[in-house]
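Hi R.,

Here's the chain you asked about this morning:
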Amino acid sequence: MLLRRFLRLLNVPGFGSRQATESQLGRIRTAMLSVLQGHGGHSVQRVSQRVRFAADVEALWYLRQDVMMALSAIDGETAARRQMKAINSMFKGGLPGSMGPRAHQRFTQSK
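And the predicted structure, written out as tokens:
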């Protein structure tokens, strides 16, 4: 049991709680589909289908950009970013450490 916890902390694939992963996958999938639900069009339907059949949390992570683009085309970028912010936070703890959002460094000019 202690080994399992240790490996889960290291994010070793296959040693996490499968039930928790399935639950997270379902919550993220539902959230993505709900923001797309009120919109029509071929591109939105195609993205919705890809979200619906995504195999794992990692696949949904990569589909975020497609969802964002579909929402931006309809509602504008500001509204799309606002809707995606809540979805992005749902990925916490479900991805390998190297796949999380990265902090962007701003370059400033010194005088």
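Residues 25-94 form one domain.

Let me know if you need anything else.
M.
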